[in-house]
Amino acid sequence: MVLKTFGWSFAITAIGLAFAAWQWGWEAFGVVLILSILEISLSFDNAVVNAGILKKMNAFWQKIFLTIGILIAVFGMRLVFPVAIVAISAKVGPIEAIELALDKPAQYEALVTDAHAAIAAFGGMFLLMIFLDFIFEDRDIKWLGWLERPLAKLGKVDMLSVCIALIVLLVTAMTFATHAHTSAGHMDKSSTVLLSGVAGLITYLIVGGLSGFFENKLEEEEEREHEEEEKAKAQGKPVSAVGLAGKAAFFLFLYLEVLDASFSFDGVIGAFAITNHIFWMALGLGIGAMYVRSLTVYLVRQGTLDEYVYLEHGAHYAIGALAVILLITIQHEISELITGGIGVVLIAASFLSSVMRNRAIAAAEGKADASGKTGVKSGV
């Protein structure tokens, strides 16, 4: 079952890592591997959400999502989007950006370095909003209860995430403004940070708005179909479940693609904190995207979701750490090993906590069963 579901992902991982080592050396191998792990860990909640929606679709639309959808996910968001960010930030055409990356890596590296402040501010704000919206939401399951409980209470204040994000952006921009008397370039960088950060915030709000729009459409469509089904049953008419699934499938597909795009942003933006090499980035994130799709199929076929309940928390704390790191890298350089390592450690910690929680629950249930049996015997 596992080999059948993840077979293509395993094969592409082996080919991708081998190609990275052959083409660019062991450094590329390590970076691509870290990016793959980063994408899988950050997109685990994406797979869970996808699985919950995908199981409602008929077999045809499931195939569409897992074929055309993967092309959009890998080549659209993981390859075109990083190139677009570099092209916009460095003020060059997308084709020119690719040509520079291939033929003039030194010049490309210089352009990306010059544009790093804009990329980091944009990405840092986008990731920060994802993190803030997560920790300010009141959830039934809490990983770090001592921290998450008071933050959930604060989250009842309207627009708190936006306010905090803007304060962080202003502080970041003012940090550069304080050096304006020594160099005019710093003042330009401060303005760039401010404008790019606002753009990242707006992008997050637009993506969230689109996701909400399609979610509302889905709810309306499902409600209408349920009413039609009940009416058909009352009249003694046959109800075609496949037909009903087909009517809502288009909205489901669009909703899933918007969701995937929104979840892809954190991986792509987070990747800029690890490397500026767009091909290493595309390769690592593409491998990760394959696992997300395979994991989605696995969860649908197994019918098991959220077994490791703290992984989503770990992924979002990793997002928060990446947001802070990106903003710091505007002024200071941080090793890629530290950046990637923090995310891996947080994910590993959340996974181990999930395993320990599952074992504790199983042990408690075992004791309850044992005491119940003892009670029955003593009663007899």
Précis, in short:
The protein is mostly helical. Helix content is 84%, strand content 0%.
Give the distance, in angstroms, between the N- and C-terminal Cα atoms.
Answer: 46 Å
User: In terms of per-residue confidence, which ranges show pLDDT below 50 for 5 or more consecutive residues?
Assistant: 180-187, 241-246
Indicate the percent of residues in helices: over 70%
Mean pLDDT: 74
Instruction: Please report the total strand number as a whole number.
Output: 0
How many helical elements?
14
Tell me the major beta sheet: none
Q: SSE order in H/E notation?
A: HHHHHHHHHHHHHH
Report the β-strand fraction as a percent range.
under 5%
Shape: globular
Q: What is Rg?
A: 24 Å
Description:
Keywords: Membrane, Transmembrane, Transmembrane helix. This is DUF475 domain-containing protein. Pfam families: DUF475. It comes from Streptomyces roseoviridis. The chain is an all-alpha fold. The protein contains 14 helices and no strands. Helix content is 84%, strand content 0%. Helix 3 packs antiparallel against helix 11. The longest helix has 51 residues, at 184-234.
